[in-house]
Amino acid sequence: MFTMSDHSHIYLHCLSRICSQDENCTTNCSPRQNQKVRRDLPDKLTAILSAGPISAAKRKLTNWPGAQIMLSVAGGLIGLFFLTALGVRAA
């Protein structure tokens, strides 16, 4: 796992294994392989892929807590109005 930084441009570099259709290239992510251990693979089976710069837009924060409070208050007032209307009608 990794965490994205606050930078607006990101560069991606990967070491990939290239397989033919006849080979079994399933990924095995056991806990032992999560350790940073580099295995020597023949050069013809690996490739280094690079991409970038990738522009990362910052997330826009919403004011959801304020809107949630306002919706709760509005719902409570509407409920109180209906209870009052039912009480007046019953009397």
From TrEMBL:
The chain crosses the membrane at residues 69-88. The keyword Protease does not apply. PROSITE patterns: ZP_2. Keywords: Membrane, Transmembrane, Transmembrane helix. Residues 1-36 form the ZP domain. The keyword Transmembrane applies. This is ZP domain-containing protein. It comes from Anguilla anguilla (European freshwater eel). The lineage of its organism: Eukaryota, Metazoa, Chordata, Craniata, Vertebrata.
